[in-house]
């Protein structure tokens, strides 16, 4: 109201100024002056209020929000699905196919410029542009000064490697193909995948991965659960139940999964790859071995035998307090989160998982009391094994020296991540074997050095 009154007052003021000027300069009749006054007042007041010609500008703003169809709007949902499918098909046709990629390689090889750098064929910017003109419309996006500069290193002639450029193109094409493939499983069409969407994607991907040929179909559901869990553990830290497709493409997990297309993948690479058949069978086999009563779930007592069997009871209590359980027992999906956290203790997502268990009062930091509470269980285990207990004061000082927190009395999750010592600190507090390894690190390093020296002497 006040704002409108202010606009009206301004309109009247300007009109009064105009009116006085008019009276002194014009010989119009009283009726004409009043009519003109009313017309001008209406014009100025309408403009200040936001009407008149200004209204037409809002009509030119394009529509930018379209609501999603409701569940009962079946026809609109079908229309949206079909339009998305057509859009993705069009995007797929815009990508280079195998024949076009071969033609691109042929053109690049034909325009290489000597001398070669080692085994690398090179190309100048002029030749690069010529290839771009001949390669076709689909390749136009790759033949830019920006791309050339990105691949330009220390060549004395200002050239780039043909192989590096071709690999760059291949990578871009692969990313777009994969994005389109993942988008086909995006039921909501909002740029993210739910757990069931990603499960369907991986299930249909299995037959295309030669390294998984030996898997029995009865194990498929467990394999899919094992694979999907890694994506969600690391890419969905807030546990929203969905992951952005962009995040899936940005991480290395999809590369690891598609690495299984290599029929000659080494045994070492398979063991290091979470998505390989040996790795999935290892994790599931451990779960079955821990399940002594064969009820398909793990009690706290059964989980206590995990790994070297040296996790403290206090830590396991916290696991069963914080994690999802069913009548006090853990299912396979919850077990996978547990394994991923303990096997990747250097990763922020794993540290977040462990930190939540250590932060008993949910304060957002660990103080001396919390450290003492967990380390006391380590001291008790040491006594049980006949080892001399270590002073908590010494361990506490070492932990704070390692982490160097911003607040000298509190350790936050960010402090642990920034220090790069989060894995060591968590091992000291939850695992007797981890503490023993830390406490005897100098002896272990010395023994390792002696064994290496012996190997050298023997040769």
TrEMBL record:
Segments crossing the lipid bilayer: none
One GO-annotated biological process of the protein: microtubule cytoskeleton organization
Record's subcellular location: Cytoplasm; Nucleus
PROSITE patterns: EF_HAND_1, EF_HAND_2
Keywords assigned: Calcium, Cytoplasm, Metal-binding, Nucleus, Repeat
Main location class: cytoplasm
UniProt entry tagged with the keyword Electron transport: no
Domain named EF-hand: residues: 346-381
Cellular component GO terms held in the UniProt record: centrosome; cytoplasm; nucleus; spindle
MF terms in GO: calcium ion binding
Coiled coil: none
Highest taxon of source: Eukaryota
Stored InterPro entries: EF-hand-dom_pair (IPR011992), EF-hand_13 (IPR041534), EF_Hand_1_Ca_BS (IPR018247), EF_hand_dom (IPR002048), PPP2R3C (IPR039865)
Protein name per UniProt: Serine/threonine-protein phosphatase 2A regulatory subunit B'' subunit gamma
Native species: Clupea harengus (Atlantic herring)
């Amino acid at each position: 109201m006040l704002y409108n009154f202010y606009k009206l007052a301004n309109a009247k003021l300007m009109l009064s100024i105009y009116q006085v000027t008019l009276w002194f300069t014009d010989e119009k009749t009283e009726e004409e002056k009043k009519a003109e006054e009313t017309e001008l007042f209406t014009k100025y007041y309408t403009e200040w209020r936001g009407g008149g010609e200004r209204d037409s500008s809002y009509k030119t703003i394009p529509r930018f929000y379209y609501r999603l169809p409701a569940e009962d709007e079946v026809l609109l949902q079908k229309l949206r699905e079909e339009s998305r499918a057509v859009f993705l098909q069009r995007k797929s046709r815009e990508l280079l196919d195998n024949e076009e990629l071969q033609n691109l390689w042929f053109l690049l090889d034909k325009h290489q410029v000597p001398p070669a750098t080692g085994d690398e064929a090179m190309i100048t910017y002029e030749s690069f542009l010529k290839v771009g003109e001949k390669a076709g419309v689909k390749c136009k996006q790759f033949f830019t000064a920006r791309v050339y500069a990105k691949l330009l290193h220390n060549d004395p002639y200002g050239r780039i490697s043909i192989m590096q450029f071709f690999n760059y193109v291949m990578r871009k094409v692969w990313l777009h193909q994969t994005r389109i493939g993942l988008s086909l499983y995006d039921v909501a069409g909002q740029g993210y995948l739910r757990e069931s969407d990603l499960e369907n994607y991986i299930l249909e991907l299995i037959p295309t991965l030669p390294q998984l040929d030996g898997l029995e179909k009865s194990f498929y559901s467990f394999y899919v659960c094992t694979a999907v869990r890694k994506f969600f553990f690391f890419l969905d830290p807030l546990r929203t139940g969905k992951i952005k497709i962009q995040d899936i493409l940005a991480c290395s997990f999809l590369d690891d999964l598609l690495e299984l297309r290599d029929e000659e993948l080494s045994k070492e690479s398979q063991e290091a790859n979470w998505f390989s058949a040996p790795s999935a069978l290892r994790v599931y086999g451990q779960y079955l071995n821990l399940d002594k009563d064969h009820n398909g779930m793990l009690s706290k007592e059964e989980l206590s035998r995990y790994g070297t069997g040296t996790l403290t009871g206090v830590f396991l209590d916290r696991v069963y307090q914080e994690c999802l359980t069913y009548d006090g027992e853990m299912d396979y999906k919850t077990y996978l989160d547990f394994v991923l956290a303990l096997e990747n203790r250097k990763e922020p997502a794993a540290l977040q998982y462990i930190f939540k268990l250590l932060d008993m009062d949910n304060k957002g930091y660990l103080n001396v009391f919390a450290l003492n509470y967990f380390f006391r269980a380590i001291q008790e285990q040491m006594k049980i094994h006949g080892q001399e207990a270590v002073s908590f004061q010494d361990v506490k000082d070492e932990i704070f020296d390692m982490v160097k927190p911003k607040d000298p009395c509190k350790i936050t999750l960010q402090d642990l991540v920034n220090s790069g010592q989060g894995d060591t600190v968590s091992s000291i507090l939850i695992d007797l074997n981890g503490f023993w390894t830390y406490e005897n690190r100098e002896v272990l390093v010395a023994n390792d050095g002696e064994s290496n020296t012996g190997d050298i002497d023997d040769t």
